[in-house]
Design a protein that fits this description.
It is built from three helices and 13 strands; from the N terminus they run βββββββαββββααββ. The protein is an alpha+beta fold. The strands form three sheets. A seven-stranded antiparallel beta sheet has the order 5-6-7-11-10-9-8, sandwiched between helices. A hairpin with a 5-residue loop joins strand 6 (about 60-65) and strand 7.
Amino acid sequence: MWRIGAVALGVLAAAVSASDLAPAREATSGDWVRYHNQRFGFRLEYPADVFHIERTSAADDGRVFAAHNGEAHLLVGALRNEDEHSPKSYQDFLARDSYPDYKISYRPFGDDWLVLSGEGGGKVFYEKAMFSCNGQLISSFAMIYPAEQRDRFDPIVARVANSFVPGRAPCQASDAKPRRGEARPAQAEPVAASDWHSRVADRIARERGRDVIVVLRRTTPPYDYKYVRGHATR
């Protein structure tokens, strides 16, 4: 039997609070430390004198850091590119789905990366996403902070962005997913969720008014987790 554990409303939202889990950190120069995700392999550096770990997902695919005054957040995570997004289509999706209340002022992209930034409601956001594993994996981080503190946080964003390295594992040729327009190997087809799981996820998405990722936890051994995408318009 599976139990609905939590719903992540965005790629970078931590699914389950687990502040007692030890962070993967390595010392760097000054007050900056390195977070290296053990599951997917992405990593970045952040200032430990500014941010502390607020939440981490039970599946260890994402983490949320909060400024000590609670006014700014740094979010980092990775997900499978099940919708076969290109950098441009994913950029459009983020702008529409994650930042509808912000005025987008910066949105460059390349063959395997994108950046999105803007301002709204007295807040500034900056998000960078990178594609790896032949486009199969999307690693990203976002920082949201008060516009009145630009002078403090803009340099932090720049250093975090320069230190950010996308995930590289698991990257296997047998399960790499091609991008739109490319031939799809038969073995690359994702395993569909059960009809019941999909219906539950879709119902939650409709209630929230946006696409979601539902986290299910098995209530019997091996107590593993399962992720089901819910669509608000289906």
